[in-house]
Amino acid sequence: MRFSKTLIPTLREAPAEAEAISHILMLRAGYVRQLASGLYIYLPLGWRVLNRINKIIKEEMDSIGDQEISMPVLHPAEIWQQTGRWSEIGEEMFRLRDRTNRDMCLGMTHEEIITWLASKEIRSYRDLPQSWYQIQTKLRDEARPKSGILRTREFLMKDCYSFDKDEAGLEENYKKHEEAYHRIYKRCGLNFYQVESDPGMMGGSTAHEFMAPSLAGEDEIVLCDKCGYSANREVEKGDKCPKCNEPLKAEKAIEIGNIFKLGTKYTIALKAVYLDEQGKEKPIVMGCYGIGPARIAASAVEQSHDRDGIIWPESIAPFDVEIITLNMNKTEVLNASESLYGVLKSRGVDALIDDRDVSPGVKFKDADLIGIPWQIVVGEKNIKDGFVELKYRKTKEVEKVRPEEAVKRLTERH
Ligand SMILES: [Zn+2]
């Protein structure tokens, strides 16, 4: 993509209301804009990051046999009334009436809807197990939306639901999803912990959260350095490790995912049953597995930045490389930049070319702020000798190489 034709509105200063580092940097680097409290617009760079995260999530979900579907955001109230959550959940739920005066709500989660689907489509033990997921918009009327895209009223969520004939099946599905989650966060370049947590309003017996350590986090996790035990502070109130009695240390963290063994709470309420081998009717056993893609993006920024800007992990960066054309009025420089851009594109390397008519200083500053992992600097003096500069954003190490060498290295990493 061409910088000159792309909406990348970088700012020198962050708006005063931004406090979290990820919020400040994503506003300054032109990734997002706030529409209203808890409502964000993703600009081209922000949307590319989110899509790269979603792609990783989908690949890992598909690899364990999960099937992607899409459910409506608008739900009829009756299904929520059947599980009791229509009255249990308070003002967090957006409620409305349609033109026939029927009660509706905007989905803050989809257990009810997917269990309704299972109740209609699953008949026999032969239909099980099943795992269905979607990456869909959720709405929650948060009392205090804050920290930019970390706590918003409308957000994307990957929610997955498994259906099994018994606890043993659920156990197996839970394990598979747990492992897939580890792969997802690792691939996204995050530092994270899996901790025990409280099932809360979801119900069910066992739950785990995935936590990315960050000062911007609203949760606190406790960790044992000796045996590796970890838990959400809400679950583990003591100061000593329950496994080995060593002192626990506390750390702030962002919740980036959660998994629940729901059991039969929803399937009994919504009569999602199957006939077993003996022809006996039994409730289906459920698990559910959520991930917030925007929280992965914000956590990556929280964990990986410096005073000049964002340093994206290569796997979720909006582009693989940025070509910085220093002298727009010099034909050799323009030609070399355009040729690099074309070759990289043809090899499947995503490149952003800074072809704006602005000073080198502005280009360097913006490139570091935006945080694309690699930069190729094309300048008049170097190109005369047949060289470009290859810069690694993370360490700021610069190397003089032939253009072909830069292409080769980036193609190999890709
Ligand atoms: Zn311990």
Helix and strand arrangement:
Layout: H1 21-28, E1 32-36, E2 39-42, H2 44-63, E3 67-68, E4 74-76, H3 77-83, H4 85-88, E5 95-97, E6 103-106, H5 111-121, E7 130-139, E8 154-164, H6 167-187, E9 193-196, E10 206-213, E11 219-223, E12 230-232, E13 249-263, H7 265-269, E14 273-275, E15 281-283, E16 285-291, H8 293-303, E17 305-306, E18 309-310, E19 321-325, H9 331-346, E20 351-354, H10 360-370, E21 374-378, H11 380-384, E22 388-392, E23 397-401, H12 403-413
Parallel strand pairs: 3-7, 19-20, 19-21
Antiparallel strand pairs: 1-2, 4-6, 5-6, 7-8, 8-16, 9-10, 10-13, 11-12, 11-13, 13-16, 14-15, 17-18, 21-22, 22-23
The structure holds zinc ion.
Residues 224, 226-227, 229, 241, 243-244, 246 line the site of zinc ion.
Provide an overview of this structure.
The structure is a single chain. The chain has 414 residues and is an alpha+beta fold. It folds into two domains: 304 residues, BirA Bifunctional Protein, domain 2 (2-Layer Sandwich), CATH 3.30.930.10; 93 residues, Anticodon-binding domain (Rossmann fold). Helix content is 31%, strand content 29%. It has twelve helices and 23 strands. Strands 3, 7, 8, 9, 10, 11, 12, 13 and 16 form a nine-stranded mixed β-sheet that branches. A hairpin with a 4-residue loop joins strand 22 and strand 23. The chain is elongated and about 80 Å long. The two termini are 17 Å apart. The model has no long low-confidence stretch (mean pLDDT 95). The site of zinc ion has 8 residues, from loops.
